[in-house]
Specification:
The chain is an alpha+beta fold. It has 11 helices and 10 strands. Strand 2 (136-141) and strand 3 (144-155) form a beta hairpin.
Length: 377
């Protein structure tokens, strides 16, 4: 970590401590949208969160996925209720991955300053990736593209201004931009386990596309975008797991049983040590994946690093969040305590962009693993 990166972390943590306090998280998650537009625009203006990894010529700050990974780690730590993942984690990377300068100039400045909330369709209504089964079809009508089909689990899909849709066409997968106000588009908010991150089902009934973005490179661009998003999501999971550990240790120091703090018991110490190992290993995996996304020298191949990070950080977050509830005893199961918020985020994040088992399958294929060993020795 450079001095600049450390200062970034301190600034973001201070802002989130104020603007994403537990009381604010509970207030926002109870609303239909799930975030405060004024607060989001303030974060984009003062800290440039949405455009941190966007080149300056498109309204961003020109940093890399490493710095953005720090932001995601701090966002996970505070359970930030904001369209950060949908915009900075999905939409902006996809626009940058596609070979379309005009689209970048048109959409990225609004995403960076917070005036445009953007998201990306990542799966069908069953959760299958659009790369494996694109559920929206685009056809040409009167010289324009018209989209039909359904998409599920679209993050911030009910209140996004811009939706980027990978759709099947006779030429293969292509990406289209759709305005939220387009005729024929219907968004149905979903009731999900994690109330701090809103999702929606989108129905496209002959919806006119605002533009087709890029061309034949769409499938490669979408695949890279999902890998970048997995790396950032891993950072978020590691940050949240770290906060679970902090909360648990603080409680173990103050909760007295049999005349002594429960943290003095060897069994509790052992559990805390195991949680620490999971958290630090998760942070290492997430930082490595972020370095791969940023193209750092000697960094591992992005697809492999992202798959490892998402698989490991998902399981680590679930395990640490569960231990937090256990070590808090009866209070850990109450609505008033924040433990259940982290536990729910852990389980839903685990399923985003492919659950751990799918990531391990991807990793095995990339290594040519045949069940007996790695091909070629």
């Amino acid at each position: 970590m450079t001095d600049e990166a450390t200062q970034l972390r301190e600034s973001v943590r201070a802002a989130f401590t104020d603007l994403s306090a537990p009381s604010e998280v509970r207030r926002r998650m109870a609303t239909a949208r799930g975030w405060d537009g004024k607060v989001w625009r303030r974060l984009c203006g003062e800290l440039e969160l949405a455009g941190l990894a966007v080149p300056e010529e498109y309204g961003g700050s020109g940093f890399s996925a490493v710095e953005l990974g720090i932001v995601f780690e701090e966002a996970g730590r505070s359970l930030l209720c904001a369209p950060l993942f949908s915009g900075a984690g999905l939409a902006a990377p996809l626009l940058l991955a596609l070979d379309d300068v005009a689209a970048r100039e048109r959409y990225l400045p609004g995403i960076c300053d917070g005036s445009t909330v953007a998201t990306v369709v990542t799966s069908d209504t069953f959760g299958t990736s659009v790369l494996d089964r694109p559920s929206v079809e685009a056809v040409e009508r009167d010289g324009a593209a018209v989209l039909s089909g359904e998409a599920g689990y679209v993050i911030d899909g009910a209140f996004a201004d811009l939706i980027l849709v990978p759709a099947r066409t006779p030429e293969g997968l292509r990406v289209f931009a759709v305005d939220a106000t387009a005729k024929g588009l219907r968004a149905i908010p979903l009731s999900t386990l994690d109330q701090t991150r809103k999702q929606a089902r989108l129905i496209f009934d002959r919806v006119p596309a605002a533009a087709r973005i890029g061309g034949s490179e769409a499938a490669v661009a979408v695949r890279r975008t999902f890998d970048v998003a997995r790396a950032l999501l891993a950072g978020e999971q590691a940050g949240a797991a770290g906060r679970c550990l902090e909360i648990t240790v603080e409680y173990a120091k103050t909760r007295v049983q049999f005349g002594r703090p429960i943290g003095s018991f060897q069994a509790v110490k052992q559990k805390a040590a195991e949680m620490l190992i999971l958290v630090e290993s998760a942070r290492s995996a997430a930082m490595t994946a972020a370095g791969s996304a940023a193209g750092l020298p000697d960094a591992p191949e992005l697809a492999q690093a992202a798959a490892i990070a998402h698989a490991y950080c998902s399981e680590a977050f679930v395990a640490v969040a569960a231990e937090m509830i256990q070590l808090h005893g009866g209070i850990g199961f109450t609505w008033e305590h924040d433990a259940h918020l982290y536990f729910k985020r852990a389980w839903t994040s685990r399923e985003l962009l492919g659950h751990p088992e799918e990531q391990l399958e991807v990793l095995a294929r990339s290594l040519s693993f045949d069940g007996r060993g790695i091909a070629g020795g």
